[in-house]
Amino acid sequence: MLFFRNYLAYISFIRYVNDRSVTLMNKMEIVKAAFTVWGREFYKTTSLTRLARELGVTKPALYRHFASKEALLDAMITYYFDTYANYAKPYMEAALTTGNLVQGLRILVRAVADFNFRNRYFFIFSLMQMYDGRKPDIAIRELRRRGMDLTRLEALDSGDGYPHLLQLAMVASGFFVAVLLKGQGEQSELSFAEELSEKKIEKFIAFVEKKIFHGLGFNKEAVEALDFDALEARLPRTMFAGETDGGLLKAVAGVVAEAGPWNASMDMVARRSGLSKSSLYSHFRNKQDMLAQLFLLEFDRLGKYVKASVQQGGKTLEQLYLALLATADYLRSRPEILVTMDWIRTRRIELGITPSQDILTVFSGIPALTRFDKELHPNWVFYWILFLIIGTLMRCPSGSARRRRTPLSNNDLPDSAFRKVFRFITLGIEG
Fold first, then answer.
1. Is the pLDDT of residue 148 over 60?
2. What is the mean pLDDT of the chain?
3. Most buried in the list 28, 137, 140, 416, measured by CB within 10 Å?
4. Residue 426 pLDDT more than 90?
5. What gap in Å lies between CA 122 and CA 241, rounded to an integer?
6. Could you give the residue ranges of the DSSP H alpha helices within 25-100?
7. Residue 186 pLDDT
8. Are 34 and 158 members of one domain?
9. Is the same domain home to 205 and 237?
10. What is the mean pLDDT of residues 288-309?
11. CATH code at position 233
């Protein structure tokens, strides 16, 4: 009995020490720890239990500072934008003083890449949280509150409309930071163990700059000589002839279209398909597996459509444009798939899935593509194209609204918008 009483007293003492330690710990220390603890696993889970264990405190003790996990995530968003704006605002002002979009973007691109390479846990947070299609305006809104109005820099873009070069540059910057940290796909996860040297950071920034300002390095005259109207007329536009969805995956796609991938659940799919939830688990291990199977099916179809489209071109540039436009065309016509891929593109590591080899072979088979850019594997050219297209479609202005929560229909964004994306990829901003 005495032993039991002593044991209870010991447990109470440990809890007191833990609770006392979290009282002495301020909110900001918890927020900073959350970036590291959750970021290490790419926000697969945002467990307060795991965070408390890493901090050496009890979970109830965390609630003294944050009423819920959502309150902590809100605090992380605030801290992220406070830190980012404090760093980037001087560079933004310097970019504006140039009065020239290209010069201004060069200043901003270097600054943003430098920030992301030096703050990798902030970067993964932005990748998982800021590229969320449910809150497309969050970055613009939060930065404007902190005195950074990105539309002032967009105003320097005198080009042919949407998408703005600022948007393309920032999306491409995020993509290439991820590529470099992944070692162009040679590692299964972003590497945070290795501390980047100043020399490596500068080398990485130079790579990002080169891709954004010079693209794949094609000849400008050759790009301008393309007959875009004729190429667009060659696109098959018959991607679904004779194809039907399997019953279950059709139900998955329907749920995704209505609820979005964030809110889609196994229960919803069970109701739509007429199966019991237990029967559904004989087909899918969990929600991630369910979305992954849908993703793989659509990539297989996309690969077939892109391959058929590329065959309509002769030269390298023609085939590359047809591949880009076919990808955009497919996603424009499948809004439920577009919104799913917007969700998946930053979570491919978590899902552990890779596009079908068919579509990757299309890009590696385009003649002379590697000759123009020996630094970037053709597979990553495809990933870059896909990343830009999804960003362009999901964040396109429509009418008086700057952006829309729902994806675009086939007629909302003309093919001509993707000529600008193509020029950006082949020539870069300076082209």
1. yes
2. 79
3. 140
4. yes
5. 45
6. 27-39, 48-55, 59-62, 69-98
7. 40
8. no
9. no
10. 84
11. 1.10.357.10
By the 8 A CB rule, do 55 and 30 touch?
Answer: yes
User: Taking the model in full, what pTM does it have?
Assistant: 0.82
Residues 421 and 314 in one domain: yes
Query: Is the residue at 345 inside a domain?
Result: yes
Query: Is 9 part of any domain?
Result: no
3-state secondary structure of 401: strand
Q: Are residues 257 and 133 in the same domain?
A: no
**Co-location of 331 and 365 in the same domain:** yes
Give pLDDT tens digits for 395-408.
766 443 333 334 44
Q: What is the mean pLDDT of residues 4-24?
A: 47
Beta bridge partners of 55: none
Q: What HEC string does 139-187 produce?
A: HHHHHHHCCCCHHHHHCCCCCCCCCCHHHHHHHHHHHHHHHHHHCCCCC
Percent helix, strand and coil across the chain, each to the nearest 5: 70, 0, 30
Pair 290, 204 in one domain: no
Q: What are the residues facing 401 on neighbouring strands?
A: 398
Asked whether the predicted pLDDT for residue 133 surpasses 60, the reply is: no
What is the CATH number for 30? 1.10.10
Residue 314 pLDDT? 82
Looking at residue 396, its amino acid is C
Triad 143, 145, 150: Cα angle to 5°: 40
Strand spans (E) along 193-315 = none
- For residues 297 and 292, give the distance between their C-alpha atoms in angstroms, rounded to a whole number: 9
Who's near 293: CB < 8 A, 6+ residues apart? 249, 252, 284
- How many independent structural domains does the chain possess? 3
Is the per-residue pLDDT at 123 higher than 50?
yes
DSSP 407: P
Task: Give 128's contacts (C-beta < 8 A, 6+ positions apart).
Answer: 42, 43, 346, 347
Classified as helix, coil or strand, 398 is strand
**225 and 198 share a domain?**
no
Distance from CA of residue 321 to its chain's centroid?
22
Please tell me the predicted confidence (pLDDT) of residue 401: 34
Domain that residue 50 falls in: 18-67
Whether the predicted pLDDT of 124 surpasses 50 = yes
Domain boundary among 166, 188, 214: 214
